[in-house]
What does this fold into?
Amino acid sequence: MPPERTPSGRRQPARRPPPRRRRRTQRRVPPFALAIIAIAVVVGIIALVARGGGDDPTASSATAEPVIPRVSEADIAAAAQQLSPRDQELVNIGQTGVSINRAGGNRKYVALTFDDGPGPDTPAILAELKKANVPATFFVIGRNVQANPEVFRQVVAAGHEVGVHTWNHPDMTTLKPAQQKAEIDNTAGEIVAVAGTAGRLFRAPYGAVDPTVLKGAENAKLLSVLWDVDTQDWMGPSPDQIVQAAVSGAQPGSIILMHDGPGNRASTVAAVPRIIKELRAKGFEFATVGDLVISDPPGADDMSSESRDTQR
Ligand SMILES: [Zn+2]
It folds into this structure.
């Protein structure tokens, strides 16, 4: 299975349910229809659980409001716990007490990753990725998903992978286990609620992990992923500096850290097409983190139990 999606394999956008008003004008709601709607909600939930995610917002399609699905938090949590075969394969790559820093290095593929969004510059990054036909991975902050649901749905609809980057972006190692769990579960639930997909990746804010944090991710059936190439784009360097850091640091299997939110990411937006062009010129292809590590599983040297650094 090639890790990069072919054009024909890319997911199609615009599969969201029509707005409420259109649906209401198309049909009145006789009493028996209410029963049908109730059944549709249940079927939708079952379908979501069976699929374990995907870009089809099944949960939303059976609701009156397109934004907030009419499923309980328990339903969302149950869906988030269900694993598709690919999800299971992904989670199995993780080992107790470690994070993945890069893939095995046997294929000339890298993963571009974007943290802290969705934010105002996320659509511009999506546009650059689309132009270049490059899949990427977005580690999102739960409260930013809640604030920018439409942008988040665009990320998912474009076929990119998403992962949990906590709700409030705390240093997780400073929190009690119950708080850590809430940071992960609330974000995972928001991802399902907004986009109907369950991310199976976790990235700790600041790359700060300890055994408790890693155990919490494992309990949530998330693969902890950090990086091996840090562009330090959050420090406000020029596009040149970001390109230089990404291109000079990339090795087969690299996971490259950038940021799409919040705040001004103009330098990152400018750097992305150049990074893609220069890495392609060096013979690299691009994959999501999940496809990267499934197609080229990390070895012991590619995992670590330690924090990466105090980066954003
Ligand atoms: Zn972050």
About this structure: The domain at 85-303 is CATH 3.20.20.370 (TIM Barrel). Confidence is low (pLDDT under 50) at residues 1-29, 41-70. The pocket of zinc ion is lined by residues 115-116, 165, 169, 205, 312 (CB under 6 Å). The chain has one domain: 85-303.
